[in-house]
Structure formats: C-alpha cells, structure tokens
Amino acid sequence: MDSGETTTKLSVPRMDCPSCAGKVENALDRLAGVSSYKTQPTTGTVAITYDTTSVEKTDVVTAIESAGYDVTDTTSEGTTDGGANDSIWTSPRALKTWISGGFLALGLLFEFVLAAQNAAVGTVLGSELFVADILFLIGVAVGGQEILRNGYYSARNLNLDIDFLMSVAILGALVASLAFGEALYFEAATLAFLFSVAELLERSSMDQARNSLQELMDLSPNEATVKRDDGEETVPVEDVSVGDVVVVRPGEKIPMDGDVVDGDSAVNQAPITGESVPVDKTTGDEVYAGTINEEGYLEIQVTSAAADNTLSRIVEMVEDAQSNKTEREQFVERFSAWYTPVVVAFAVLVTLGSPFVLGTAWSTAVVYGLTLLVLACPCAFVISTPVSVVSGITSAADNGVLIKGGNHLEAMGAVDVVTFDKTGTLTKGELTVTDVVPLHGNTEDDVLRCARGLEARSEHPIGEAIVAEAGSADVAEREIDDFEAITGKGVRAELDGTPHFAGKPGLFDDLGFDLSHVHATTDGGVVTETTRQLCERHNCLDLLEETVPELQSEGKTVVLVGTEDEIEGVVAVADEVRPEAKRTIARLKDLGVERTMMLTGDNDRTARAIAEQVGVDEHRAELLPDEKVEAIEELVEEYDGVAMVGDGINDAPALATASVGIAMGAAGTDTALETADIALMGDDLAKLPYLYELANDANGVIRQNIVGSLLVKAGLAVAVPFGYVPIWLAVLAGDAGMTVGVTGNAMRLSRIRPDLATDTAERSE
Fold first, then answer.
1. What is the pLDDT of residue 91?
2. 97, 82, 22, 10: which is closest to 50 by C-alpha?
3. Of 308, 341, 362, which one is at a domain's C-terminal end?
4. 4-15 exposure pattern, b = at least 16 Cβ within 10 A, e = fewer
5. Coil, strand, or helix at residue 683?
6. Is 421 among the residues known to form the active site?
7. Residue-wise pLDDT tens digits, 390-413
8. Residue of 257, 398, 421, 602 marked catalytic
C-alpha cells in the first residue's frame, strides 16, 4: 500500500512571531506521523509533510489549535491564502485592550486625583482593597485574558516565551500584593494593558511585512473567460485546463500563462519582470499570469495550470525563501536560546539579592524581578533579521528580481567581484546586421538583396540575421536556383541565373579576388585616409589588411557578397551589446564592486572588443564550461563574495559554483528559475545595480536591528536593579518600541527602486 505522504500548507494568521512558531513546533513534534514542517511567522503559514496512513489533516489542525492558534484556512501545495483578517485595531483583542486601558486610567484618577474618594471597599487575606485597586484588578481581568490564555498554552507546550513570562509577571504582581501587603495592582494592570498594546503593535507591524507578499498573490485574477464552441464562459482559474483558449479584453489582467493565438496588444509586464514600459505582444508571443492587457483584444492558449504558472512559482519561491536562514539569523537563534534563561536567572538573583546588596524593600525587589521578566524575551531581537529579509525579498520580487533565500540576499550584499557571461548577458544573444559596405557602384539595397537570396535557404544564425535585416529593409526578393553550402566557407547559388557567393573572406580569396584593392561606393564609415592615398581613385579599400580586421576588432563577423567577377559588398553581423551594459558596469563600480570580469567561450578578439565596449576590468575568452568553473573557483579563493551572471542554462555549473548565481531573463523559464540563487525575471541587466544596492542596504538594516535591539535590551536590564527602569518603560521600550522599531527600519528597504529613468533612457538609445 502507498505510504500516502503529503504536504499541506495551513494558514495560521495569529502565529506572527518566533515564540508563536515555537509553540506550534512543539505541538507538531508530539504528533506521530509528521515527518517535517516549516513554520513561517512572517507569512502566518505552516507547511507540514505527514503520512496520511497514520495521521489525518484534522489531527494536524487539532495539534496546532492545541498550541493556542486558530487555523483559518488550508491550502494545497504551492499556493497560499492567508484569509481575510479583521482590522487589528477593532478586533476583540483590541476592544478588550481599550477597556482595560479605561479601567487603568480610572484607577489612576482615583489614586492620584480623587484620593479623598479612594475609599477602602474590603480586605483580602488581611490586605485592604481600595476603589483604585478594584479598578486596576478589573483592568487586569479584561486586558490580561489573552495574555494568561497564551501563557497557559506556552506552559503546556513547554515554551519559555514572552506570553509565559508576562503571565508570570502579572500573576507575580498579584501574589506579591497579597504576600507583602503593599499593593502592586497598578503594576499588574499596567503590564496587562501595555503588553496588549505591544502585541497589537507587533501584529500590525508584521502585517506590513506580509502585505507586499499578499499583493503578489493578489495579482492574478480569480476568474478567466474561456472560449467555448458555443461562446464564452467565465470560470475560476483552477478550472482552466492546459490547451484552453482564454479571452482577455483591454484593461483586464491576463489570468494564465500562455501563448497568444489571436490579436495583438501592449502588455504591462511590471508585476512579473519589473519592466516599466509595456511590451508589444502578437500571435506566437508568450504572456504571463498577472500581467495587464493595456489596449488590444487577445486570445491566449493556456500553457500552464494555475498552480504552476510563473506568478505562482514566484510566490512559492518568495515564501520558501524565508526558510533559508542567513548566517545572522542562525547566530540570533543560537544567542536567543540562552539569552532568556540567563535574564530569567538574573531576575531571580535581583529579586533575592537586591534587599541585601542594595538595601531595597522586598516589594521593590519583586517589582525589579518582574520588570526583568518583561525584558527576558528577545522578541525584537529575534525578528530583527527575518522581518528585514522578508521586506527585502518581497520588495525585490515586486521589482522583477526573484531572490530564492535570505542567505542569498545576505551573500549578494557581500559580493566583491561580479563576473558575466557574454552571450545573452552583456549582449542580446541575437545576431543582427551592424554594417553594410557596398562596393563597385552597388547600393546597400543591392548588397542586401543579393545576400538575402544567398542566405534564404541557409539555417546558419548569420544567414538568419541577414535575411531578417533584408526583410526589415523591405528589399525585393530574387529568384534562387542551385543552392549549395560550401562547408566552412559560405554558400553559393544562382540568383536570376547568375552565380553568386556569400561567405568568409577566404572564400573570395580562393576565387582569385584581390582583397587588398576594392572600391567602396561610399566610405561606409570604414574607409581610411591612408587607403585613399594608395590609389588614384578615391574610396579604395584594403579588405584583407584594413576593413575586415577593423570590423572584426569590434567583435563583428564579416560576410563578403559577390559574383564570380565582382565583390558587391561587405556585410558585418554581430551579437549587439545591450545598451544598458556599460552603465550597469559603471554603476556597480560606483556602488563598491571591486572587480568585474567577463567569461566567454567566444574568440579572444571578439571578447576583447566587447570587454572594452562595456568597461569590464578583465575578460577571459575561449573557455569551456568547466574552465568557467575553474575561473570562478579561483576568484572565490581570492575574494569573500563572487557573483556570476548568466542565462541560467549554459552557465549552470558556473552559477552553482559562485557565491551567488544570477540568471538573466528567467520569466517563464523553469531551468533558470531552478538553477540560479537569484533570477532577473525581465531581460534587463540594469536591475543588477538595484539588486546589489538592495542587498547592501538589507545587510546594513539587519546589523542595525540586531545591534540596536540587543543594546536596548541590555541597557534596560542593567539599569533595572538601580531603579531607573519602571515596568511600563520595560514594556514600551524593550518590547513594543523595539518591535515596531526594527519592523519600521526593515520596511525602509521597500523604498529602494531601480533607476527607471536611466533604464528607460538607455533602452531608447
């Protein structure tokens, strides 16, 4: 019988802090049949893998609920739905908090303003209770319900977290009031009210971190209009099958990944690729779920199910990215494991020792101990890194950069060297005609018409580039007969009955042409003054020694075109450098990258030309894939961090070897998404400086959060025995204040944006 192992994602919205996750994990640890789980407090989800033959989903839900957290929704693998939450500030917890605060305020009014009316109303164990004390106790009863409830679940799950510590502090204040005869009801009410406010603030802050991911999940529409034999039908996207044709009208979101089968339009792909300019789409072009049809009517044949489309994969990878802990997160977890026990022990020591060492009253010593218990939970310290990572990763995804883990974000911020593949990375990866030099009285159209006829039946990429250029120039076609490929040299065919040739200079050298002496119709931009002086006629070219080497030095491939009697022209073809490449390299250096390098399998002359054009510090040419890996390994030994930027397919070994592997143009490409640590979803190299800046700033924010939260906690703890830190300050500054502070600091990362103005200008050049 099949083992029946399955993975289910559960939405647990109130699990919004590491201590909450700890209780859930302890509950799942006691459940037989659960093989693994991932708790993600920053998104409020738990992914559990379990054996259905020994445990059911209801058992898993019950286990989580036994830790004190409601499961609001269940989702299948690969999707997430946090459910709709009520406003935090009008929730039942919030209403109880405001009522508790009202009774606390009334108690203070009777304690200090209406002292004459603060009469004794009874006694408990010999201690008098006044009106203010009753009001404080009501405040504790109302505001402390959730705290004591959560504290109970913490004790039940053997979790020494903030809920347990605050419960002990509140109950300790009440017990001490009876034991010492000196009322600490005010302190108990203050703890109940202020900690409830702190919890609301923490939940609100965490929701801010969740919002950006929720926005990603909300991009894809829930319904699609499917074309049927008898018309159109609107159905949920989950019911759309691969092969169905969906209809998308102007202004609508594209519901599924697919290929355009009818219509043309401009599509806003910013949600997926981060491109600021809409992309023209026509029959045969690929489109992605969540992108917006700007103006035209489109019919799209679906190529991926809803759970497998590009947007769904991005959302899933962003969620999973939180599970890859950074080195700083691992340090924080190790540190927090002994921080709480040490501070609790310090609280006990202060409570028992301060009356003898500092001469304080026992009641005061108890207050000191309770204050230290408030500071014993490292909540702000623990969330300082994950909330920053989530903010950085989701902000990057919103701008078309997919970072597959916090560890990769951290590593990118420490990169000293960036290496680039050439083809498809620094260049467009598509051959285009760059120069046409007509000779012996022919025009450019004459040369292209001849070249088109010769290359029309060729399957070589150079031939395809020439045919495409001739087509865009709208030159006339010629009648072709007796086509023949001359291996390693070029092609031959009869055009309108006359034999013609196209190929390398060596082909025409073999045909007996004097390549050192031909005449250009115009200077073509490559005629030099020296060659003019060598001939009685102007526009004399030396193809062998001057023109061809000059074009080749620019990284271009040269094709000669002519008949048996005359060379009609020169066509240069090249893989064009991306217009944003030079600016990208310069910007990376401005941001602090020490060294840039290009690694390519192309010949050294072409590589040198491209390297000089884009401005990389160094290039290495004629490299096989394993030699690229060796080059990366050398750099990794020399520098702390090395990034490799490639297409995610041919460069997979080098991407895997580098400290950070970055894939270009990964939208819709499974291989690129799986291979790289980071994927630039759009084919836009200009996003690289943005990524580097974001990663650097993220590392800075993480350091600020860790150091800041640790120093505040330590400073408050040291000051407690000397009476400088009242219990309300410990709650507001040490817990609520730092939680809000580190979250707000982390959210600053969402303000970093690519330099869209520069990128747009470069694309228009």
1. 82
2. 10
3. 308
4. eeeebbbbbbbb
5. coil
6. yes
7. 788 888 888 888 888 778 888 898
8. 421
**What residue numbers bound the domain in which 41 lies?**
5-67
pLDDT of 591:
92
Do 301 and 439 fall into the same domain?
no
Are the C-beta atoms of 742 and 383 separated by less than 8 Å? yes
Compute φ and ψ for 265, nearest 5 degrees: -165, 170
Map tokens 């404080």 to a residue: 136
Residue 158: phi, psi to the nearest 5? Answer: 55, 50
Establish if 39 belongs to a structural domain.
yes
Per the CB < 8 A criterion, the answer to whether 594 and 639 are in contact is yes
End residue of a domain, out of 24, 45, 67 = 67
Q: Give pLDDT, residue 261.
A: 92
Name residues whose C-beta falls within 8 Å of residue 602's C-beta, 6 or more positions apart in sequence.
422, 423, 621, 622
Which among 163-172, 445-454, 580-589 has the top mean pLDDT?
580-589
Find the Cα–Cα–Cα–Cα dihedral 400, 406, 408, 411, rounded to 10°.
120
pLDDT tens column, 137-166: 999 999 988 888 888 888 887 777 778 878
Structurally, the chain folds into a number of domains equal to: 3
The β-bridge partners of 493 are 500
DSSP string, 250-279: TTPBP-S-EEEEE--EEEE-HHHH--SS-E
Q: Examine the pLDDT at 211 and tell me if it is beyond 70.
A: no
Is residue 602's pLDDT more than 80?
no
Q: Angle, nearest 10°, between helix axes 379-398 and 18-29?
A: 100
**Percent helix, strand and coil across the chain, each rounded to 5?**
50, 20, 30
**659-685 residue pLDDT tens:** 898 988 765 455 556 667 888 877 788
**CATH number assigned to the domain comprising residue 453:** 3.40.1110.10
User: CB–CB of 363/180 below 8 Å?
Assistant: yes
* 361 φ/ψ angles, rounded to the nearest 5 degrees: -70, 155
> Model confidence over 35-53: pLDDT tens digits?
888 887 767 788 888 888 8
Residue 740 structure tokens: 């809000």
DSSP string spanning 412-459?
A: HHT--EEEEEIIIIIEEEEEEEEEEEEBTT--HHHHHHHHHHHHTT--
Q: How far apart are CA 142 and CA 101, in angstroms?
A: 9
**Residue 499 counted as domain residue:** yes
Residue 682 inside a domain? The answer is: no
Which one, of 169, 153, 68, 147, lies nearest residue 100 by Cα? 147
In a domain, 237, yes or no: yes
| 706 against 103, higher pLDDT | 103
Closest CA to 559 of 458, 408, 666: 458
CATH classification of the domain holding 243: 2.70.150.10
